[in-house]
Design goal:
It is globular and about 55 Å long. The protein is mainly alpha-helical. The longest helix has 15 residues. A three-stranded antiparallel beta sheet has the order 1-3-2. It has six helices and three strands. It has a single domain, classed as Winged helix-like DNA-binding domain superfamily/Winged helix DNA-binding domain (Arc Repressor Mutant, subunit A). It starts with 7 loop residues before the first helix and ends in an 8-residue tail after the last helix.
Length: 113
Amino acid sequence: MNRPVYTPSSAADGIEKAIRLIRGRWKLVILFQLFGGNVVRFSELERLIPDISQKMLAQQLRELERDGVVLRTVHEGKPAPVDYRMTEWGQSLCPALDSLLLWTEEGPGWAVA
């Protein structure tokens, strides 16, 4: 695939689009639970992220699924267990977020604790 030639404006637009995909109070927390190939049931995500409401977790997961970052699988059973995992494209976000985290550690006075 040939990459486009970016102008300052189109590069800024592209980054804005990427940020919109992961913007949300809980999306990054959810993604970090799923990175590394983790397959996590909805109920386990509720336990791993105790401060999120069930409604908000479902909403954030729906948005991540809609945007192609997360894959939702419904299994047979009553109630039907549901699990989530990163798509291949979603998993490719991990190095970028790691780089961003390292960048903040090097910043003037805002090291992450």
